[in-house]
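name: query_chain
kind: protein
chains: 1
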Amino acid sequence: MTFPHPKLGPFEGDNDKWCKHASAEFTRTVTSVGLEAADWDDAHLAVAHLLGFVICAMADAGRRGDGQQIMPDLLEKVRPMLDGLMAGTIVVHFPNEIRPHLTVLSGGKSDRLAEV
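structure:
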């Protein structure tokens, strides 16, 4: 997987795969760590993430657009989540290509090696 693919938008082909990867890593390394930290309030973390979104979205608008408004493809990507928040409903998205996080492999150490 490579990023960016210069002829694709940020949510097309390999660029979309990279977006999903980056989102999962951000959630693992930033969001989860903040939620586990004793000195972070969950509401403060939510506001910090939303402010980060606005800043990144406007930086993207400056790079890909005229800098005046969030790009339509980015809004299309986040609108289902925002609509769910505004309506007070829970929005769950199921990706098209769900893959296991762990893969069971046959083989491994033999019992004889475990006794040594």
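note: The CA atoms of residues 57 and 70 lie 6 Å apart.
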